Description:
The complex is a heterodimer of chains A (110) and B (113).
Chain A lengths: L3 E4 L2 E5 L4 E7 L7 E6 L6 E6 L5 E4 L2 E6 L4 E6 L8 E8 L4 E3 L3 E6 L1
Parallel strand pairs in A: 2-11
Antiparallel strand pairs in A: 1-3, 3-8, 4-5, 4-9, 6-7, 7-8, 9-10, 9-11
Chain B lengths: L3 E4 L2 E4 L5 E7 L5 E8 L3 E10 L2 E4 L6 E7 L2 E6 L8 E8 L8 E2 L3 E5 L1
Parallel strand pairs in B: 2-11
Antiparallel strand pairs in B: 1-3, 3-8, 4-5, 4-9, 5-6, 7-8, 9-10, 9-11
Amino acid sequence: QQQVKQSPQSLIVQKGGISIINCAYENTAFDYFPWYQQFPGKGPALLIAIRPDVSEKKEGRFTISFNKSAKQFSLHIMDSQPGDSATYFCAASNGQNFVFGPGTRLSVLP
Amino acid sequence: DAGITQSPRHKVTETGTPVTLRCHQTENHRYMYWYRQDPGHGLRLIHYSYGVKDTDKGEVSDGYSVSRSKTEDFLLTLESATSSQTSVYFCAISVGQANQPQHFGDGTRLSIL
Lengths: 110, 113
């Protein structure tokens, strides 16, 4: 119940395209859903986060869509750029437990 | 930059030897965490701290111990390293909210032969 599933494992997108990464959870007590971006040789960096009282949150080219009934949330990267190439992790927290998904390696081709 | 420094950045050692990794933060944040990152597993919590001398176990704590004698330093010790502990180790802090790591160090790549 503490797991967060993430797909796809890897993703290749052309420059200017939309990158979509999906996550699913089981524990309905989770109430905080962040996304992290990690470049090689660096630690993860908090990118954007959402709470279940809203269905969407947008920051620049990055949008989280949240479906509470399906227990799913996704990250959309609009107008994807080569500089977005990184590994992306979703996570979920209920204040007591914080769980990461296994990660998605995104490659944006120039 | 949240002022998190991990040392060493790379280490190679032999099975059975003790290893200590250090995390140093410059902003006196209360909450600190140690994670390990392995392919296919994301990041898994080893230990965490809510303050000086206040630590607790995470999901994968077996074989690891921690200490926090000063707010700014959080040490992770492998008492007798095993090859299964070969990994990349990350320290993290959260600002104001427990169990929500926000800033990570750049990691320590540990290889145990």
